[in-house]
């Protein structure tokens, strides 16, 4: 299945997940996500998501001037962000477990057992 | 905060500039937040993956906008109206957007955008010329670039037009950020008018400068005509005449090839010179003219000749000259000749030698 379709619902979660350990600037975060396996994530989507999370208070941001190139804008997670990460992380795990269960095949059932025998 | 102060690859800065442009319906704050640091991020990406990583800025801006949770870009209202024409225009605008976002074209387009202020000044000037034409009257020696009006007026008109044009260009005054069809169309037509007017105005200026030259030339000619005689550009105020033998002459009447008197006409001549007279008519073509030691500016004073005299010429005699058309005066060998010469000299001293040279030629 197309990864970008799947990502739409969980981009916030993915971004929060890669920022929780260490602050990062835009492309740095994209790189972490791609290195983590989300190879198809679009950078514009990530930058937009960063901005939205920042507006919601889940991220903080600061600009670091650079001697050799343009300034970098760093993002770091806030308590609100950690809270959101935990909540959405739990939701995701529950969802994934459910889906894993569905994918594992039909659950053994007394009636069906008899029928199949 | 400005993130664009430090050097960035031109294709990256052009790309970011285009993305910012596509987000210009957002508030400045939102737009800044959304694109701050974008140069740095894209510079990194380009460094890692090459320039091809910069795709279509229209698509990029759309993705950025959507991910950040903003409404999709509102279509400018000029395109919203008609169905067929609107769609056509929208398609054209999108094609144009894509074209100027092309990695090869974008830097050039950015360069052209930088020249916009120059265009504002140019169209202001075109407008100023039109306004200057509406000012009643015509002033010949006005501001060169704004003919027909006085310097101060011209500068004022220019200043007002430049300020107005710049404010329109910056979107501060009409039609400003408005996307109303009528206002936009009128502005477009005015701009087209200015473009068409520039060569016409330039042609007229060319004509104008020629006219000025002509005027100056004929003024100069008129002055020369009034001024009497000139010699190598300088006014002639008096003439010292010598005959072929180099002796000074008094009372020489001069005429040009058409028989017109060769009269001098210097500044204040009536007051400082004593003319010759024919009956009661003054003759200014008889030389040398007497000179007064101080100007006499009234009829009564002019009657008083005290202190007036013929000027002392810059040399007492001139070298003797000959002409093949004039018979040798046999001056080298005979006493008779000496006598004759002496006789002539005494004639001159009597003051009756006017036109001596003329006589000799006969």
UniProtKB/TrEMBL annotation, chain A:
<dbReference type="Pfam" id="PF03551">
    <property type="entry name" value="PadR"/>
</dbReference>
<dbReference type="InterPro" id="IPR052509">
    <property type="entry name" value="Metal_resp_DNA-bind_regulator"/>
</dbReference>
<dbReference type="InterPro" id="IPR036388">
    <property type="entry name" value="WH-like_DNA-bd_sf"/>
</dbReference>
<protein>
    <submittedName>
        <fullName>PadR family transcriptional regulator</fullName>
    </submittedName>
</protein>
<dbReference type="InterPro" id="IPR005149">
    <property type="entry name" value="Tscrpt_reg_PadR_N"/>
</dbReference>
<dbReference type="InterPro" id="IPR036390">
    <property type="entry name" value="WH_DNA-bd_sf"/>
</dbReference>
<feature type="domain" description="Transcription regulator PadR N-terminal">
    <location>
        <begin position="15"/>
        <end position="86"/>
    </location>
</feature>
UniProtKB/TrEMBL annotation, chain B:
<keyword id="KW-0812">Transmembrane</keyword>
<feature type="compositionally biased region" description="Basic and acidic residues">
    <location>
        <begin position="293"/>
        <end position="304"/>
    </location>
</feature>
<keyword id="KW-1133">Transmembrane helix</keyword>
<feature type="transmembrane region" description="Helical">
    <location>
        <begin position="120"/>
        <end position="139"/>
    </location>
</feature>
<protein>
    <submittedName>
        <fullName>Uncharacterized protein</fullName>
    </submittedName>
</protein>
<feature type="transmembrane region" description="Helical">
    <location>
        <begin position="181"/>
        <end position="202"/>
    </location>
</feature>
<keyword id="KW-0472">Membrane</keyword>
<feature type="region of interest" description="Disordered">
    <location>
        <begin position="293"/>
        <end position="362"/>
    </location>
</feature>
<feature type="compositionally biased region" description="Basic and acidic residues">
    <location>
        <begin position="329"/>
        <end position="352"/>
    </location>
</feature>
<feature type="transmembrane region" description="Helical">
    <location>
        <begin position="151"/>
        <end position="174"/>
    </location>
</feature>
């Amino acid at each position: 299945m197309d990864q970008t379709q799947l990502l739409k619902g969980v981009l916030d979660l993915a971004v929060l997940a890669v920022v929780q350990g260490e602050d990062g600037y835009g492309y740095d975060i994209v790189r972490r996500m791609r290195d983590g396996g989300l190879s198809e994530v679009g950078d514009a989507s990530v930058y937009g998501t960063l901005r939205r999370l920042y507006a919601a208070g889940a991220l903080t941001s600061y600009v670091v001037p650079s001697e050799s190139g343009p300034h970098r804008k760093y993002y770091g997670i806030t308590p609100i962000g950690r809270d959101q990460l935990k909540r959405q992380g739990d939701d995701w795990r529950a969802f994934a477990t459910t889906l894993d269960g569905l994918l594992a095949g039909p659950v053994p059932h007394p009636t069906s057992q008899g029928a199949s025998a | 905060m400005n993130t664009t102060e430090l050097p960035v690859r031109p294709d990256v800065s052009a790309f970011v500039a285009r993305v910012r442009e596509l987000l210009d319906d957002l508030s400045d704050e939102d737009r800044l937040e959304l694109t701050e640091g974008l140069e740095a991020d894209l510079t990194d990406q380009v460094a890692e993956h090459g320039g091809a990583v910069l795709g279509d800025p229209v698509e990029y801006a759309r993705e950025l906008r959507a991910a950040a949770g903003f409404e999709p870009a509102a279509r400018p209202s000029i395109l919203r109206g008609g169905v067929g024409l609107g769609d056509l225009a929208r398609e054209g605008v999108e094609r144009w957007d894509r074209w100027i976002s092309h990695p090869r074209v974008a830097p050039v387009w950015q360069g052209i955008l930088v020249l916009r202020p120059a265009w504002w000044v140019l169209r202001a000037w075109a407008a100023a010329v039109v306004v200057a034409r509406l000012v009643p009257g015509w002033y010949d020696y006005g501001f060169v670039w704004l003919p027909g009006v006085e310097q101060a007026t011209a500068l004022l008109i220019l200043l007002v037009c430049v300020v107005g044009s710049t404010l329109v260009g910056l979107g501060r005054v009409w039609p400003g950020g408005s996307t109303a069809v009528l206002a936009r169309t009128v502005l477009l037509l005015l701009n087209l008018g200015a473009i068409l007017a520039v060569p016409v105005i330039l042609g007229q200026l060319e004509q104008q400068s020629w006219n000025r030259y002509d005027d100056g030339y004929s003024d100069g000619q008129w002055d020369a005509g009034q001024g009497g005689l000139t010699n190598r550009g300088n006014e002639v105020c008096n003439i010292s005449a010598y005959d072929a033998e180099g002796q000074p002459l008094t009372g020489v009447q001069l005429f040009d090839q058409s028989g017109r008197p060769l009269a001098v006409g210097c500044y204040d001549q009536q007051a400082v010179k004593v003319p010759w007279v024919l009956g009661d008519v003054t003759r200014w073509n008889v030389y040398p003219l007497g000179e007064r030691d101080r100007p006499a500016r009234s009829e009564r004073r002019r009657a008083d000749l005290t202190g007036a005299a013929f000027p002392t010429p810059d040399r007492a005699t001139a070298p003797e000259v000959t002409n093949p058309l004039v018979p040798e005066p046999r001056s080298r060998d005979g006493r008779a000749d000496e006598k004759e010469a002496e006789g002539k000299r005494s004639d001159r001293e009597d003051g009756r030698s006017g036109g001596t040279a003329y006589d000799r030629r006969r």
